[in-house]
Amino acid sequence: MKRNLQHIDEIRFLVIHIVLINHWNINLYLSHAQYDRKIFDIWFDFTSPCLAILSGYLFFYKTKDSFPYFKKLKNRFHSLVVPYLFWCLSFFVVYIVIKDVYVRIFHSTFWYAPEESLSFKNMLSNLRNPTLSNFWYLQNLILILPFNFFIYYLLKNRWVYLAFFLLVLSCYSFNWIDLESYFHSRFLPYYLMGCYFGYNEKYMPRVPISKLGAIILIPVLVWVTLSSSFWKDNVFPFLEIKMCIAMLFLFSVYNLVDSNQNSLAFKYLAKYKPYSFFLFAINMFLFTLIQRGLLKLGAERYLHYEGFLWLFLVGSFLAVIVLAFGIAALLKRYSPKFFYTITGR
C-alpha cells in the first residue's frame, strides 16, 4: 500500500476537505430557518474511517522485524497529545470569551452548548468532551496508543488476529459489548484493518484512470458513499459493507490522484498539504465564526431560497479554507516553532 501511496498526504488532505462539507451545515441545525433538508443535509460517513485506515497502516508499516514501540509513542506524543491538549484547552477559553461577546451583541446564545464558567473542573471535562467536537477522532487515536503493543503481538499470527478482528466487528454489529463508549465504530474497526495491511505490507494496486474514467467514477463514488452514510453500524451487515466502501474509496482516490498529477486539483493538494492538520483543527470554529454572524445579521431569512443557500454554504466553505490557510501561513512565517508544535509536525 505505502509503496504505491506516495500521495498519502494529498489523499489525507482531500479527505479533510470532505470533512468540511460534513461540517458546513451544522450551524443551520441550530437556526429556525426553513430549508429543504433532503437536499442540503449532506453527510459523507467515510471520512474518519478512511483516516483511521491510513493511521493504522502507518503505525504498523514495516514492523514485522522490529517494533520500536516506545519511539513511536514518543512521536505520537508530539504529533497527537500535544496538539490535542493545545487545541482543546485554548478553544475552551476562546469559546467562553466568544460566547460572552455573542450574547452581548445579539442578546441570545445560539451555540452548541450552554455557557460554562472558566474553572479547572470544566477545563478537565473539556478534555473528555472537546469543544471542537471533531476532535473525537484525535481522542480515539490517543486512546488506542496503549493497545497498539497488544495489537502488534496479535498481528504476528494472522488467524488469531482475524478472530480478534471478527470479534470486534461482531461487538459493534450485534451490540454484544458496548465498545462505542470507548472507541467509535467509525474508528476502531477501520483502524484494525489498516493495522493488518500495514503490518503485512499490503500495497495499493495501481490502475491508470483516464479523464473519461474520472468523469464517470467521481459521481459514482459520491452516490455510493452518500447512499451508505446513514446506515446504522449496529445493524448487520451495514458496518461490514461500509468498510468495503471505505477501501473502494481509498483505492479509487489514490488512482484518481496518481493518474492526474498535472491537474490543478493535484497541484493545489500538493502545495497546501502542510496546512492539513491546521484546517482539520480550526474549521469548525471558523464555520461558527462566519456562519453564525451571517445568520444573525439577516441571512437566516433567505435560506429558503435554494440558490441563496447554496451560495451561503459554498461561500462559507471557501471562506473557511482561505482564512485557515491565511492564519496558518502567518503562523508558519512568523512563529514556525509554534506552528509545528500545534500541528504535530
Describe this structure as you would to a colleague.
This protein has one domain. Helix 1 (8-23) crosses helix 13, helix 5 (69-106) packs antiparallel against helix 7 and helix 15 crosses helix 16 (336-342). The protein starts with 7 loop residues before the first helix and ends with a helix. Helix content is 68%, strand content 0%. The mean pLDDT is 86. The radius of gyration is 21 Å and the shape is globular. The chain has helices at 8-23, 26-29, 37-40, 47-60, 69-106, 120-128, 136-143, 148-155, 158-174, 188-199, 211-228, 238-259, 264-272, 276-296, 306-334, 336-342. It is mostly helical and 345 residues long. This is Polysaccharide biosynthesis protein. The chain crosses the membrane at residues 12-30, 42-60, 81-98, 135-154, 159-177, 183-200, 212-231, 237-257, 277-295, 307-331.
